[in-house]
User: Fold this.
Amino acid sequence: MTDSTSQADLVLVERDGGLAVVTLNRPQALNALSAALRSRISEVFTSLGEDDSVEVIILTGAGRAFTVGLDLKELGGETTPDVTGTSQNLGRVIGQVNKPIIGAVNGFAITGGFEIALMCDFLIASPEAKFADTHARVGVVPGWGLSQRLPRLIGINRAKELSLTGNYLEADQACAWGLVNRVVAADQLLPTCKQLARDILSTDPQTRKEIRRIMDEGWADTLATGLDIEDQANRIHAKNEVRAEKVAARRAGIQDRGRSQSTAR
Assistant:
């Protein structure tokens, strides 16, 4: 290894019921994506995808960064990649998990790190979060989906501004542009994400999975196609999953939740 962290410790996993918190753990290198770290991310997400006990994942970074992207020392030949590393496409690996992923962006999310953030279902950020796409400055064309996901999230003109300049986007502006859902105090970042994960876990698993699927499939296509996808899913789900007794059993819980949230406001 090129640093004191063993490969097993490059990614930490904390399990709590149906929730798994995944922490990229190269803080001394701002969680730069060395070959060894990329390999470990692939292993962890493949394992979590196959683990039926895990239903929701929170992804974050240790220290001052979410991740600053590819390890430029390795990319520039200054250090030798660990032999256990892999060039596997993390976009495909993380995409195949097929479970909600909440990005808890604690600091810098740069280039490849920005791409990993965009793989999450939604993002919550601390005030220290900063986003930047420096592909054009490094001289590397994006390969993990940034050029396609970012314009769809914030609009093509804003995406071009970020990608063609390489400028930084602060957390508050990222929220205003719709890149992150909200900005919370640093000490509330993980608690907020864990509460949102628990909210997700409290929903019906099969219905939740189907809603997420049709949202993603529709988002990748036209509105007309998306409406057809939803209509077909609605019909199949109503036929196979919706039962009067199930709806009745959930009704009281939904009402109680509505009352408690109204009181909290």
Notes: The first strand starts at residue 11 and ends at 16. The chain has a mean pLDDT of 89. The chain has twelve helices and ten strands.
